[in-house]
Amino acid sequence: MTEYRAAVIGCGRMARGHMRAYKELGIPIVAGADISEEALQAFAEETGAEGLFTDHRKMLAEVKPELVSVVTHDALHCEMVVAAAQAGTKGIVCEKPMALNLTEADEMLAACQASGSRLTVSHQRYYMPQYTRARSLIADGAIGQVISAEASLKAGCLMTDGTHTIHMLLALLGEPEVEHLLGQVDGHEGYEYYGHRCENAGIAFLAFTNGLRASMVWGWMARSAASEGRMRRQHSLDPSWNDEVHRYHNFVIHGDAGRLELYGDIFSGADLDAKPVLRIIRGGEIEEVAFEWPGEVSAIGLEVKDLIETIESGAPHPLDGANGRKVTEVMIGIYESARRRSVIRFPVEARDNPFLSMCETGDFPPQGDETGSHVSPNERERWRVRSGTEKGKGAS
Ligand SMILES: NC(=O)c1ccc[n+]([C@@H]2O[C@H](COP(=O)([O-])OP(=O)(O)OC[C@H]3O[C@@H](n4cnc5c(N)ncnc54)[C@H](O)[C@@H]3O)[C@@H](O)[C@H]2O)c1
Asked: Which pLDDT band, with edges at 50, 70 and 90, does 389 fall under?
C-alpha cells in the first residue's frame, strides 16, 4: 500500500483546516511552501515539517509529496494545481473556488487527466452532518417529489462564498444539470478579497433539464427586517432572512409532500440547542430533525479520506474536479447573464470571468458611502480589515 506524505502550498488561515485533516488521518505533513517566512515558521512549529520552501515548484520537485493541498488565494489555484499534477502528485486538494474562469478550470482538469492525478475541490460542507442528513432525507422521499428550491447566502460574493452555496444547492437537488439561468449582481462596492474584486449582492434563477427550478439570493442584503441594523433593514432583498436564526447559507427545498428547511452552519453545541438547524414541514406540522454533531473526523478529513480511496480503488469522488468545474460553470453563467443582461443557456461559452472583466472595463465603478452605497461605515471597516493583512473572521 502507498505511504502518503502531505505538503501544503499556502500556509495561511485556511491551511489550518488541511493540517488538521492530515493529522486526523495520521498522514505526515512533510513540507510547506509559502512566500511569507513568518507563515512558514508558524507552519513548521505546528506541523514539525522540515521541508520549508518559498517556491512551491522547488518543493514539488525536491519533496515529491503524494498529497498536496493548494490553499493560496483564488487566482493562484490553477497554476499551482497544474504544477502539482505535472510533478506527479497522486492526490491534490484544491481550495474553493476551483478557478476564476472556465479556461483555468479546463487547464486544471487537462493537467490532472494527463498525469493521472486525482483532484478534489474543497466544498467540504458536503461532509458536514446537517447537510449529509438533509441530502439523504430528500433522496429518501421525506418531502415527496422535489419541485423547487431557494438558497440564501449571507456573506460575500459567488467567488468567495457563493461557490459553497451553488455547490450545496446542486448537491441537495441530486446534481441536476442547468439548462438555462438568469442572474444579476451589484458590484459597486469596490470590495476586494482573496486578491480580486467581489460583488456585494446578487440574485439568480436557475432552470434544470429535469424540470426543477431554483432561486438564489446573496450578499449581506439578504438579511431582513428581523436582523439588527438600519442599513440591513433598508436594503434587504430576502424578507425571510433573520440573523437570529439563519447562518451562513440556508436552503428551503419544496416537495409535493412538504418542505425541508436547512439553516446552514453550526459552530458550537450551544448553537445547535438554541436554534433550529434542520426541519421538515408538512402542512401545519413541524418536525425538527436530529443528527450527530460534530462528526469524529472534520469535513476536510473526510474529503481527504475519500481522496485516498479514489486514488487506490478508482472510486468516484463526490468533490472531484468535474464537480468543481460544474460549480464554476454556474458561477460564470450568472456573471455572464449579468454582463449580457439576458438568459444564458448551458453550456456556458464565456472563457473569461465576466464580473472581473466588467470591473476592468469600468462597468462597476466603486462607489463611496456618500454616493448611494449599501454598506454601512462599520461594515466597510470590517471588510477593509478582512481584506488586509489582519486575519479576522474571514469569508469562507
Ligand atoms: N473551504 C473553505 O471553507 C474555505 C475557507 C476559507 C478560505 N478558503 C479558501 O482558501 C484559500 C486561502 O484562504 P486563506 O484564508 O487561507 O488566505 P490567507 O491569506 O490566510 O493564506 C494564503 C497564504 O498563501 C500565501 N501565498 C501567497 N502567494 C503565495 C505563493 N506564490 N506561493 C505560496 N504561498 C503563497 C500567503 O503568504 C498566505 O500565507 C482561498 O482560496 C479561500 O477562498 C476556503
From this structure: very low
For the entire predicted model, the pTM comes to: 0.93
Cα 290 to Cα 130, 157, 173: the distances in Å are: 9, 31, 21
User: What's the pLDDT score for residue 396?
Assistant: 47
CA angle 6, 9, 12 (to 5 degrees): 110
Please list every protein residue whose CB sits less than 6 Å from any atom of ligand 1. 9-15, 33-36, 39, 56, 71-74, 76, 95-96, 122, 124, 160, 194, 391, 394, 396
Q: Which of 52, 71, 126 to mutate to test the pocket of ligand 1 (most atoms within 8 A of CB)?
A: 71
Whole-angstrom distance, CA of residue 186 vs CA of residue 197: 12
For the segment 326-352, what is each residue's pLDDT rounded down to a tens digit? 999 999 999 999 999 999 999 999 999
Query: Residues 386, 394: contact at Cβ < 8 Å?
Result: yes
Which residue is listed with cell 402542512?
283
pLDDT at 223 over 70: no
Q: Are 293 and 269 in contact (CB under 8 A)?
A: yes
Q: Per-residue pLDDT tens for 287-309?
A: 999 998 888 899 999 999 999 99
Atom of ligand 1 minimally distant from the CA of 72 = 24
Q: Using the mean position of ligand 1's atoms as its centre, give its distance from the Cα of residue 199 in Å.
A: 19
Tell me which residue has its CA closest to atom 5 in ligand 1.
Answer: 396
Q: Which domains does the chain have, with CATH numbers?
A: 6-121 (3.40.50.720), 126-294+320-396 (3.30.360.10)
pLDDT recorded at residue 275: 82
Atom of ligand 1 nearest to the CA of 124: 1
Cα separation, 92 vs 94, in Å, equals 6
Helix (H) or strand (E) holding 19: helix 15-24
